[in-house]
Amino acid sequence: MGSYTAAAVAAFAFGRRETVVDTNIRRVHARLVSGVALPSPSLNAAEMRLAAELLPDDVGTSVHWNAAVMELGALVCTARAPKCGDCPVRDSCAWLAAGEPPPSYVPKGQAWHGTDRQVRGAVMAVLRLADAPVPAEMFRREPADLGFAADGIGVPLSALHRLNSAPEQLERAIAGLLGDGLAELHQGGYRLPA
Ligand code: SF4
Predict the structure, then answer these.
(1) Which of 26, 34, 97, 164 is the most buried (most CB within 10 A)?
(2) H-assigned helices in 55-187
(3) Within the chain, which residue ranges are assigned CATH 1.10.1670.10?
(4) How far is ligand 1, taken at its centre, from the CA of residue 72, in Å?
């Protein structure tokens, strides 16, 4: 029996205080606490230490904690399309606060490039650098067309445009950020929530 399985059985079947670390729990810890899109490719000692630190001391609470974090990862904080707008811990999420940075590696069988998530991250990178609301048309036209220098906000805008996302995907990304409360419309432009 693997160590994860043994811990899960001890926690869930026998109600013991055990540090359970499965794929879903690792992903939630990575995003919520460590602020990265994905946990490391293989379980490491730092992750185990973090999971042990987060586990509540009370035995009964720890059992609920393991089940709740696992369920959050399975149903809300999913690998491909986390539902941050529905997430009960979004206000504490380090990954959201960091502007949804992309993963440092792409897991086998998964794609990041071309996803809505990538476009959302690129839009957030623009908003983080902007010191005033960014007019909507700036997201839709090449910065060079708008006379931007190749520094400041022009850098993330260029990166966004290099994605060549379809207009509807860009609209979807912006609408998602507005809906999730990560961006807001102000004086005809978009900005981070005040
Ligand atoms: S806010 Fe999003 S990324 Fe953060 S824990 Fe919730 S679902 Fe996961």
Answers:
(1) 26
(2) 59-75, 94-97, 116-129, 136-140, 154-162, 167-179
(3) 3-97
(4) 9
